[in-house]
């Protein structure tokens, strides 16, 4: 039997932490290893308790969730809890290394599924919604100069670039396989090569790189 997924809950509202704990502890294969009421505590708890996933609120005292994410992404995957009104915060969280996000009104089963997906190494649980948020933030920031292409972009094959565009569009591996009429394993290989060549932590970073480099243009 596989070890349970270890989750740390970081939120400044005690009622929300308690609700998350009850939900997650009742879900097979998940266990809550700790709680944090602010970002600084979340960083300390992550380093001490070694969770697999940190469920991170954005707005917290002492240290907010964005800064805390930058400190913990090398030790655990971060799933940001956010709302539609925080588009720019979502983009900043992805740049900080978060593996994805869930909305605060996500149904309980959606939250559990999100944690499982992130723990398994995937990212962007709701890719189309995430892509919309990223695109909107980039559109509002159109006056900024395009970031220089990341190292490794020139080394991509034509098919790898095509797959990267599909990833940035929020497509799942299965959808990409159907689009190119190839096997799922072939797509997984392409994505793995993209992660390696672009030195990206996960699919979330691939999306950010695709937008910031200008490879993908909002609305295209």
TrEMBL record:
Example GO molecular function: DNA binding
Domain (HTH luxR-type): residue spans on this chain: 149-214
Q: Which residues carry this modification: 4-aspartylphosphate?
A: 57
- SUPFAM superfamilies (alphabetical): CheY-like (SSF52172)
In the record, biological process GO terms are: phosphorelay signal transduction system; regulation of DNA-templated transcription
Instruction: Spell out the PROSITE patterns in the cross-references.
Output: HTH_LUXR_1, HTH_LUXR_2, RESPONSE_REGULATORY
Keywords on record: DNA-binding, Phosphoprotein, Transcription, Transcription regulation
Q: Where is the signal peptide?
A: none
- Domain Response regulatory span(s) in chain numbering: 6-119
Q: From the Swiss-Prot or TrEMBL record, give the protein name.
A: Response regulator transcription factor
Q: What is the lineage of its organism?
A: Bacteria, Bacillati, Actinomycetota, Actinomycetes, Cryptosporangiales
């Amino acid at each position: 039997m596989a070890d349970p997924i270890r989750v740390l809950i970081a939120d400044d509202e005690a009622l929300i932490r308690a609700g998350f704990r009850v939900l997650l502890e009742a879900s097979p294969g998940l266990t809550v290893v700790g709680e944090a009421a602010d970002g600084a505590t979340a960083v300390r708890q992550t380093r001490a308790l070694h969770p697999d996933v940190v469920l991170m609120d954005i707005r917290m005292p002492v240290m907010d969730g964005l800064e805390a994410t930058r400190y913990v992404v090398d030790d655990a995957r971060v799933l940001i809890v956010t709302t539609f009104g925080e588009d720019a915060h979502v983009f900043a969280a992805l740049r900080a290394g978060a593996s994805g996000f869930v909305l605060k009104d996500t149904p309980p089963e959606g939250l559990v599924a999100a944690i499982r997906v992130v723990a398994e190494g995937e990212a962007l649980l709701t890719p189309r919604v995430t892509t919309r948020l990223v695109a909107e933030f980039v559109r509002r920031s159109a006056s900024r100069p395009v970031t220089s292409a990341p190292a490794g972009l020139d080394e991509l094959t034509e098919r790898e670039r095509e797959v990267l565009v599909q990833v940035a569009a929020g497509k799942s591996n299965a959808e990409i396989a159907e689009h190119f009429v190839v096997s799922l394993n072939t797509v997984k290989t392409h994505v793995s090569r993209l992660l390696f060549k672009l030195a990206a932590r996960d699919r979330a970073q691939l999306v950010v790189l695709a937008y910031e480099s200008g490879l993908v243009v909002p609305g295209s």
